[in-house]
Amino acid sequence: MPEILVVGHICLDIVPGIATSAELTPGRLFEVGSAAISVGGAAGNTGIALACLGADVGVIAQVGLDPFGELVQSTLRSVSPTLADGLIEVPSEPTSYTVVINRVGVDRTFLHCPGVNDSFRPSALDAHSLAGAKVLHFGYPQLLRQVYESAGKQLISLFALARSLGILTSLDTTYPDSKSDAGKVDWLAFLTEVLPYTDLFCPSEDELAFMLSTNQSCEEMLAGCLRLGARGVMIKRGENGLILGTSSEFPLACWRSRMVAQPSYPVEVVGTTGCGDAAIAGLLLALLNEWPIERAAQVSAACGAMRCTVLRVDESPSLAQVEDQIARWASGS
Question: Which phi and psi angles does 40 have, rounded to 5°?
Fold first, then answer.
């Protein structure tokens, strides 16, 4: 069984080649280039990035029995023959997909169909599903209806089971549509219930500010999450890098009671979809291998930066490429 399990939201990402920053005016036709089509979502992005890094990883998520579902499965298997073995096929529901509007100099816009993700129930996973894993990473509760409508109880059930089996738990989030059902959830209450079962919490700066309803600094928000019960927190800050902090109860002794701020690395940005997930992949690999926390932060930031240079997640770098690039940055070349 895989050492790292990535569980939760998965979808097919369709990214049209848009070479303009012009407003998309209704009634007009805009010529675009070929579309990049790849697997997305936390389970897809993080799982593939980990596989490219050489990790022993498996994905547990739901897909429909439709052409998009076939593409998700074939893409995962093209990266690693066993990566799709944990997918759950649901014949009566459509595979989730996202159209990513990625215009030059403009923040991304997402057109998202939840599809089969709405019926995914993490509490249905049993000890056999998790057997052999050392790390369990769960992604995007805001896009999984069964998770946010249960006020976190579904996720608590899974994380409690994982911890009883000696498995480290990790949680990633995303920014919900504020007008959707997920956008109306009391996310502070959700985190208050879930974070005591979470070893590593990995939100972005904007996501966390939204969930906590605050304008505090990253350091203050990180400290707040530790007080809520998370044992470790990495806040992704985009071009400002990341900040990683842990409590005295963090499972890996050499990371306990530490705070590391890691700047971003300079790259030529092609797209930013999946960059946060790639950064988490680097961090999870470092955690599994028990690397020093400073190296973990460097590898995490490098994985996120290098993901910005390609459109497809299956073009994510290997560990050797990441380490070589870190050495180049360190030497100024």
Answer: -130, -165
